[in-house]
C-alpha cells in the first residue's frame, strides 16, 4: 500500500501517526477516572474528532455524565450540563434577552449551550420545543438571540443521554431529529472485576485528579487531519453498499428484510459512516481506512437511522439485528 495514483499513503500515515500522538495521552488521562467503558470513551473521541454529536443510551449510573466531564477536563475545554425537565424552555438552553434597568436597554444572557462540551442530560424529558432548539444549535453551530447571531465555540460536542427504562413523562426524539446525531451508543453494565474497582474507588473516596493534557487547538488540528485520512474507492463502495442495503435489501440478496424495514439510512448515514471510519482509523493511529474500521462503527452510526416496522417489533427484531444481517451479507473489499 505505497502509492495509489498521486496519493502517497506512506506520507499520510506518518503525518497521522504524528498528529494522533495525543490520543493515547487523552485515553490514559480519562482512564484515571473512568473504569472500563472503553467503547464509550472511543465513541466520544470519534464524535469529537468527526465534529459530530453523540446520543448515549443506558440505565442510570453508568458514568455517562462523568465521561464527558472528564473529557472536558482532559481537553482544557469549557463544560456545561443541562438537566432536561418537562418545564424547561428553549431560552434556558440557548440564552435570552434581559432588561437592564441601569442602561435602560436589553442585554444578552448566553445560555449553557455556549461551551465546548455540552451534556444534555435525559434529553427525552424535555418537550419538542426545547429539543429542537438544541438540535438547531447542533446542526447550524450557531444560536440567534433577539436579532443577534452568535457562532458557537469550537470544538463543540453535544452528548445527549436518554434513559431507556422510563417511558412515563418522556418525549421520545422524533426519527428525523435523532438523525442529527452522528452516533447512538448503547452502554451496558461494567464487567464484574471493573465494578469491583469502581466500588473500591468510591469507598476510598479518593479519585485521581484529571489534568488537561490536550489543548482545544490540538483538537481543531486533529479534526482537519482526520479529513486527510485516505479512503480507497473500494471502501467507499463498501459503505454505500451497506447504506443502500438498508433501503433496498432485496437488491442485496436480503429480501427477508424488506417487510422489517420501514425506512433506511439517509445520506447523513453514509457521510457519518465514512467520517466515523476515518476517525476510528485516526484513533488507531493509521493514515488509511480498512474494512474493519467501517465494521467497528457501523452499529453506532446506523442503529438510530433504520426504522423498523410493526412486523419486526412483533418478531422481536431490532435495528441491530438488521445491521448484523446486512454486514454479514455485504462482500468485504
TrEMBL record:
Name this polypeptide is given: MoxR-like ATPase
Pfam families, per the entry: AAA_3 (PF07726), AAA_lid_2 (PF17863)
Alphabetic keyword roster: ATP-binding, Nucleotide-binding
Source superkingdom: Bacteria
Membership in a protein family: Belongs to the MoxR family.
Domain ATPase AAA-3: 53-183
Annotated source species: Algibacter luteus
GO molecular function annotations of the record: ATP binding; ATP hydrolysis activity
ChlI/MoxR AAA lid domain sequence ranges: 259-326
Lineage, highest ranks first: Bacteria, Pseudomonadati, Bacteroidota, Flavobacteriia, Flavobacteriales
Amino acid at each position: 500500500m505505497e502509492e495509489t495514483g498521486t496519493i502517497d499513503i506512506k506520507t499520510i500515515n506518518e503525518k497521522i501517526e504524528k498528529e494522533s500522538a495525543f490520543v493515547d495521552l487523552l485515553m490514559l488521562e480519562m482512564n484515571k477516572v473512568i473504569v472500563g467503558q472503553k467503547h464509550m470513551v472511543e465513541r466520544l473521541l470519534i464524535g469529537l474528532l468527526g465534529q459530530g454529536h453523540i446520543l448515549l443510551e443506558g440505565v442510570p449510573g453508568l458514568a455517562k455524565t462523568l465521561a464527558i466531564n472528564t473529557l472536558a477536563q482532559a481537553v482544557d475545554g469549557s463544560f456545561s450540563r443541562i438537566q432536561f425537565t418537562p418545564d424547561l424552555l428553549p431560552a434556558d438552553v440557548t440564552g435570552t434577552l434581559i432588561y437592564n434597568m441601569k442602561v435602560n436597554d436589553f442585554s444578552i444572557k448566553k445560555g449553557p449551550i455556549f461551551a465546548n462540551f455540552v451534556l444534555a442530560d435525559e434529553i427525552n424529558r424535555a418537550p419538542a420545543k426545547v429539543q429542537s432548539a438544541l438540535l438547531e444549535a447542533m446542526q447550524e453551530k450557531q444560536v440567534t438571540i433577539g436579532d443577534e447571531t452568535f457562532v458557537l465555540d469550537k470544538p463543540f460536542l453535544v452528548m445527549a443521554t436518554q434513559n431507556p427504562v422510563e417511558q412515563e413523562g418522556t418525549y421520545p426524539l422524533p426519527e428525523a431529529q435523532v438523525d442529527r446525531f452522528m452516533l447512538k451508543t448503547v452502554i451496558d453494565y461494567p464487567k464484574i472485576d471493573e465494578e469491583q474497582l469502581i466500588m473500591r474507588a468510591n469507598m476510598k473516596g479518593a479519585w485521581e485528579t484529571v489534568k488537561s493534557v490536550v489543548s482545544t487547538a490540538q483538537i481543531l488540528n486533529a479534526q482537519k487531519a482526520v479529513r486527510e485520512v485516505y479512503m480507497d474507492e473500494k471502501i467507499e463502495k463498501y459503505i454505500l453498499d451497506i447504506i443502500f442495503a438498508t433501503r433496498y435489501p432485496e437488491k442485496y440478496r436480503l429480501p427477508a428484510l424488506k417487510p422489517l424495514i420501514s425506512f433506511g439510512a439517509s445520506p447523513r448515514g453514509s457521510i457519518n459512516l465514512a467520517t466515523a471510519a476515518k476517525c476510528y482509523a485516526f484513533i488507531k493511529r493509521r493514515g488509511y481506512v480498512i474494512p474493519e474500521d467501517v465494521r467497528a462503527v457501523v452499529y453506532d452510526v446506523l442503529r438510530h437511522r433504520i426504522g423498523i416496522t410493526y412486523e419486526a417489533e412483533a418478531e422481536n427484531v431490532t435495528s441491530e439485528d438488521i445491521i448484523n444481517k446486512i454486514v454479514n451479507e455485504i462482500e468485504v473489499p
